[in-house]
Design goal:
With 194 residues, the chain is mainly alpha-helical. The protein has two domains: 1-59; 65-194, no CATH class. The protein has nine helices and no strands. The protein has helices at residues 2-15, 17-20, 22-32, 34-59, 72-92, 97-102, 105-120, 124-149, 162-187. The two termini are 25 Å apart.
């Protein structure tokens, strides 16, 4: 579990630099330039994410189960994940109604993903992982709200409702791919096994 906690601290800490130590980020951008800082941050993000996946895999099954969710919770989780994937896709498309109403659809997707997995998993390592991601997304949302008030960022401006349709269609296809193959391939567990 210590390895999992360390990996979470590294991954989430890296992604909270702007929130916790904004002067460090600015200093790194001044020293390296924005493209180089972006590349370094991106590479570190991938490395810490891979470390996080490894640490979670190592912790899996070592600590038993704190609770066994009822079978019907799996149906709620699958439905919430459909919504999360649609929000995720909307966050990468030009603004439709979904993106403009949610303001930060990627953070909404992370919160829904984490919450739905907290509902469905009673293992201590899962609770630590998904609880940490939920807390991280909440902190980022608070930070984004502050940055919005300070004028550092702007809300997306509505472009067309067709992007909502694209988000739903691509989201459903991606959700189905995750549900029927990708989750088992990447995580080793089928979400359809209840």
């Amino acid at each position: 579990m210590q390895l999992l906690i360390l990996s979470l601290v590294l991954f989430i800490g890296l992604h909270l630099i702007r929130v916790v130590v904004p002067d460090l980020r600015r200093a790194m951008i001044d020293k390296l330039g924005k493209p180089v800082w972006g590349a370094v941050h991106g590479i570190l993000s991938i490395v810490t994410l891979l470390f996080l996946a490894y640490a979670f895999d190592q912790a899996r099954g070592m600590y038993g189960t704190l609770y066994n969710p009822p079978v019907w919770v799996a149906h709620i989780t699958l439905t919430l994940m459909l919504i999360a994937v649609i929000c995720l896709v909307a966050g990468f498309l030009p603004a439709g109604h979904i993106r403009t109403k949610l303001k930060f659809p990627l953070l909404v997707a992370i919160k829904i993903w984490a919450l739905s997995h907290l509902l469905a998993n009673g293992e201590p390592e899962a609770i630590v992982l998904f609880g940490a991601f939920l807390a991280w997304a909440v902190l980022l949302r608070i930070s984004m709200k502050q940055r919005l008030r300070n004028g550092e960022i702007k809300l997306p401006v509505f472009v067309s409702a067709k992007y909502d349709l694209y988000a739903v269609i691509i989201g459903v296809v991606l959700w189905a791919a995750i549900l029927f193959k990708l989750h088992e391939l990447v995580i080793g567990v089928s979400p359809l096994v209840m």
